[in-house]
Amino acid sequence: MRVLLINPGWGSIVSTKGNRFNRPWPPLDLLNCAALLEKEGIEVGLIDARACPVDNQKIALMAKTYDKCFITSSPIDRWQCPNIDLDSFLELTHLLPKEELYIMGTHGTVCPDELITQTHAKAVIRGEPELTVLDLSLGKTFKDIPGITYFDNSKIIHNRERELLSLNDLPIPAFHLIDVRNYSYEILGNRLLVFEGSRGCPYPCIYCQKSMYGRPYRMKSPDKLVDEVVYGVKKFQAQSAYFIDLEFTLKRDFVLEFCRKLIGKNIPLRWTCQTRADTIDLELLKLMKKAGCKLIHFGVETGSERIMEIINKKISLSQITHGVLTTKKAGIEQACFFMFGFPTETEEDRLKTIAFAKTLNPTYASFHKVTTYPGTPLFEIMSECSPAIKFPTWLKEHETDYLNQTVRQALFEFYVRWHYINKNIIMSNPLRLIRKLYLFYNYWGSLK
């Protein structure tokens, strides 16, 4: 049995539709799938066209030499914020042999009927893919495989949901199928690997697409996560890492133990994570920094307390301010993310968000338009206002042109300040500065 796993390319570094970054980061979920398959003696090929662009026709020819082909519409770094421009993905699926073509990712999880109809795949995998890919590759009959959608003659069948896996049961990802030199994060470093210590998030934010994760919050053991990191650094010379957890510091004791064990391994690694500003403290942050943490992502979203209540984020602006200040005190860089276009949002709310970003003054600030994803409470709210929202647009942008102007205004007001330019640009590493400017240029150009 020969199985091909595909992470398709998405064209430019930033998609115009939805302004999504298409960074080439390791597709950890596919690497998990590959490790499980190889454990069963199955030969695995992996094409990551995001990292190494490959012509779709060439991918289709390669796929014909495999027994089964699995393609993702959203690798794990895009589970939460999937790309809304599916043109490139659909173009490739139409070229691939349909006899053993399987689709995985957020899009098929939320809209399986539409995806299987548009791609003519043999089946669509709903939710986390690892165990389902294994079952399909082992040749189990469709009726016995939970978590898939498929055609039975002309009728679409939705099997029951699959029980969520234990992260501790996953083998070490098949990092040998990728070249770490192809991956980087312009504000962190080169030779990047992606790891995860947990899946899920218990918070009820109305805009967040969490269909791939399942409800329970699940963690790996600190020992297992450390083993994976050490393996990636020593075997493949990884120099930087992104912990893809939705809320990395949600369980304080886990992070403390992980960091202490990682420090004990004495390996050179720069890493970043995403978390909430109200789940950190100075003692924890200092230990994280000692363990190699250089940057933390914070989803701030808005500078309006009123909007914060509407989006149900369960955090206050004062808590965010304290968390960002504490992170600065610990000597860790911060990247804060903001959005415009929430329900009932006014011009005053948007100006408050821009002002709050400047007040926080993080190392980096990222501004985006709200995307209304199917499967979220926000989608239900907006569908009531506009029933025309449906797949495959995946998008409802309020006053799109005006919001683009607001994003441009926010970017200009935040970054074109002498204090910021002097501290973060003029004094920046030249190579990293070039990467930052390239990224800024592409993102600005996508705001049409």
Description of the molecule:
By secondary structure, the protein is an alpha/beta fold. The chain has helices spanning 28-39, 56-63, 87-95, 106-110, 112-119, 130-137, 222-236, 252-265, 282-290, 305-310, 317-329, 347-360, 377-385, 400-415, 418-426, 430-446, and strands spanning 2-7, 14-15, 20-21, 43-48, 68-72, 101-104, 123-125, 148-152, 155-158, 184-185, 189-190, 192-195, 198-199, 218-219, 240-243, 270-275, 293-301, 333-340, 364-369. The strands form five sheets. The chain has a seven-stranded mixed sheet, sandwiched between helices. Helix 12 packs parallel to helix 14 (400-415). The chain is globular. Residues 386-398 have low confidence and may be disordered.
Show the helix and strand layout.
Elements: E1 2-7, E2 14-15, E3 20-21, H1 28-39, E4 43-48, H2 56-63, E5 68-72, H3 87-95, E6 101-104, H4 106-110, H5 112-119, E7 123-125, H6 130-137, E8 148-152, E9 155-158, E10 184-185, E11 189-190, E12 192-195, E13 198-199, E14 218-219, H7 222-236, E15 240-243, H8 252-265, E16 270-275, H9 282-290, E17 293-301, H10 305-310, H11 317-329, E18 333-340, H12 347-360, E19 364-369, H13 377-385, H14 400-415, H15 418-426, H16 430-446
Parallel strand pairs: 1-4, 1-5, 5-6, 6-7, 12-15, 15-16, 16-17, 17-18, 18-19
Antiparallel strand pairs: 2-3, 7-8, 8-9, 10-11, 13-14
